Amino acid sequence: MALTGRTALISALGALFVGFVLPSWLGILTVQLALLLAILCDLALAAPVRKLHITRTGDTTVRLTGEAATHLTVTNPSRRTLRAQIRDAWPPSSFHPGTEVPASRHTVRIPAAERRRLTTTLRPTRRGDHHAVRVTVRSHGPLGLAARQGSRHVPWTLRVLPPFTSRKHLPAKLARLRELDGRTSVLTRGEGTEFDSLRDYTPGDDTRSIDWRATARRQNLAVRTWRPERDRRILLVLETGRTSAGRVGDIPRLDASMDAALLLGALAARAGDRVDLLAYDRRIRASVQGRTARDVLPALTEALAPLESELVEADARGLAATIHRRTRRRSLIVLFTGLDAAPVEEALLPVLPSLTQRNELIVAAVADPRIEEMAAGRHTPQAVYAAAAAEQTHAARRRTADRLRHHGITVIDSTPTHLAPDLADAYLALKSAGRL
């Protein structure tokens, strides 16, 4: 039973009134007995909480920057009117700061044998699975002096997907892909190494593409057109060890890598390549294999949604062995990892020869934009020292990148906003050059 502020107010007014008529002790006793009787009557008339039927429906997935709606259907099977305050409790990360109280609490009046639907709007601030905690109902009597209260678990799970902010770059990259594929009108069409067709020579064509045998048969100049190879294997590898947990700006490095992986996965699927995913630190954390072009992007998004960094040192040898088991034929391996000198030199470099022997390898690393800001500062003595430290960090990353390039590896070291488009451009350049 819960008492309200109205109870205390009535008690005070009753004591003040009776104090003028009866002796103080008798007046107080009379007021207390009357108040107790009113509370018991009010409590008896409050609709029971245990008999309520509560079900839940609503959204099951939402992107990190979006909104989701979950609905509670409350049915009152009793003969009394339900006057209640209902709280639909979720984890704090399911709401933007400051919006949890108004979004999760509802005041309702449900007559006997009727139902109402209550909507809770969620605006998650973290990826992953968000689970409903409990539904708490406080049922008031008609006088508002007392209330019944109870809680129950009404299960529901909302999966919050990566925001995929780099989706805005996809139309431009697909336009470039169509140019490489020879499906748009450009001066030089059909770059690549896979023969496509013959056509008449036009001014500006590369003379090395002239097919002299076909020209002799057709009595006019004919040139070969080429298209990028299709059905190539792309393996996206996210290293989820401790280095991926560091924050750059407002997001972890892992989230920036996810965004770039989604853009490359969508682009490669549209290019006709087969895209797989592997997330690994000391064991496999997420995996996507054998999906069709239509299913690749949803599968990648679902697999990445609950993925979190582990505060352990990544096992480079175990990662290399897992990659070998996944790549039975020549593939493009895109490894999302850091460029810190110690982990690369001690763990990654020893296993590189086995990875690059029959595969094309890209190492994609997330650079901290704050380092660039520090490097540009010169206005105070403290800024000069910070700029010197930033330049030293840049130099160390360049040395590490140069060592990787010495092994024939393509290195992309970009800030979170540029990593995804830069990686897509590197993929298109390899495809155009016939290196996949």
UniProtKB/TrEMBL annotation:
Which keywords fit this entry according to its UniProt record? Lipoprotein, Membrane, Transmembrane, Transmembrane helix
The membrane spanning regions, by residue number, are 7-25
The yes or no answer to whether the keyword Isomerase is present is no
Q: Where is the DUF58 domain?
A: 198-378
Highest taxon above the source species? Bacteria
Kindly give the Pfam families that the UniProt entry links to this protein: DUF58 (PF01882)
Which InterPro entries does this one have? DUF58
The protein here is known as Lipoprotein
- Name its species: Streptomyces angustmyceticus
